[in-house]
Write a structure and sequence with these properties.
alpha+beta, set domain protein methyltransferase, domain 1, globular, single chain, 2 domains
């Protein structure tokens, strides 16, 4: 794993400046304690950055492991934007000399590859100024209100950084997190079936995963998100996410209970220990808040599952509805699950159907043409997955 110098890491670029800064990043990361697989290829062509490895390299082999000493905490520096060119405005004393040099090369690569301009052309965040009504419809009022604190001058920069940093625990036994930029790891592209970031508070680690359809490019999963969240969070279309996260809704359960579904953008379950009945559903579970009287249940998100996990949503609904005070008998749980399942699928189908219909029947606000087209692609993809949901297989 350890490499003595940058020559062992293969760099393939069509730009000598990018190659220069990639060499600096590799050298500094190694000096800072990073582990880089000696069969790694870092590529940059026409501004597109990617990481690959030979096909014979085993799946799940560690490609990059970055310790905190080479990560770049967002609160430790300030950046500025002039047109679409990033510059470093200030650096706090919390950054080491190595981290400062890493930041300088990361910023240089962003500028040379025109990353901000590319992001601006497709980011849904720009709807905040151009078509806020559509952005609210795509997300919700509370989500959009988060942008109110952003300065108008630096709005694009803050949006760009939001799409690139990772929130990382500061300590294993703490819930406190800090947002960091990740030298080199930043260049992995997303694949929804790839493993996510690992390493806990001690490091950020990426293991090898390549597209099942072939090729040597390696990927990482940005999070357990769906096509909708990828578009909103990262500004590009993705149609390979296996599940659909339900839109927010509130629905009655029996005569006395209420189930509320949110759509959190980072919704890992909050169980200290998974209930035995849900042991194999960790990937589908979200934070749960149950009222003391058992009449109100809030789920951070609920995923409409793909064909290879047809029973996942129904099992989760059955588990929780069975524990609610819904005013009926336990023998009625199956009927209540049926009703909830049908309502959730129908409301999601109606939401994306109407969204797509409205966008196709109206001309986009000038300047939002690319964003609107991307939203249409996302809506069609979500509809295809929702329509593939089988109530019969869910009950099998």
């Amino acid at each position: 794993m350890d490499c003595a110098g940058t020559s062992i890491i293969n760099l393939e670029t069509d730009n000598s400046e990018i190659e220069h800064h990639l060499e600096i990043l590799v050298k500094l990361c190694l000096e800072g304690g990073a582990e880089l697989n000696d069969r790694l290829n870092i590529r940059s062509f026409e501004g597109d950055l990617s990481i690959s490895a030979p096909a014979e390299l085993p799946t799940n082999e560690t490609l990059i492991k970055l310790p905190p000493t080479v990560l770049l905490p967002i609160p430790s520096f300030e950046l500025e934007l002039r047109d679409t060119e990033i510059s470093i405005a200030s650096i706090s004393g919390e950054l080491s000399a190595t981290q400062q040099k890493l930041l300088e090369s990361m910023v240089a690569i962003y500028n040379i590859t025109d990353k901000v301009h590319r992001y601006q052309s497709c980011s849904t965040d720009t709807l905040y100024h151009l078509d806020r009504e559509l952005l609210v419809r795509l997300t919700n009022t509370q989500y959009v209100s988060n942008y109110d604190a952003w300065s108008k001058e630096n709005f694009l920069l803050q949006s760009f950084l939001k799409s690139r940093y990772l929130k990382k625990k500061v300590a294993e036994n703490s819930d406190e997190k800090v947002s960091v930029l990740m030298p080199l790891v930043d260049f992995f592209n997303h694949h929804p079936l790839a493993p996510g970031f690992s390493g806990g508070a001690k490091a950020i680690k990426v293991t090898r995963y390549s597209d099942p359809e072939g090729g040597e490019e390696c990927y990482v999963r940005y999070g357990r998100q769906d096509d909708h969240q990828i578009l909103v969070g990262y500004g590009y279309t993705e149609t390979r996410c296996p599940a659909v996260l339900s839109i927010p809704m509130e629905l009655p359960i029996g005569n006395t209970a209420t189930l509320k579904l949110l759509r959190n953008y980072s919704a890992k379950h909050n169980f200290k220990q998974l209930p035995t009945a849900l042991n194999d559903l960790a990937a589908y579970l979200s934070p749960v808040q149950f009222s003391e009287d058992k009449r109100s249940l809030t789920l951070g998100c609920l995923r409409i599952p793909p064909k290879n996990a047809p029973r996942a949503m129904r099992r989760i609904l059955s588990f929780w509805i069975n524990r609610m005070d819904h005013g009926g008998t336990r023998s009625e749980v199956s009927r209540l699950v049926d009703e909830a399942e049908i309502t959730i699928v129908d409301k999601n189908h109606s939401y994306y159907t109407k969204l797509l219909s409205d966008l196709e029947s109206c001309a986009p606000v000038p300047g939002t043409e690319i964003q609107v087209e991307n939203i249409k692609i996302m809506a069609r993809s979500q509809l295809n997955k929702i329509e593939a949901y089988s109530f019969e297989r869910a009950k099998s």
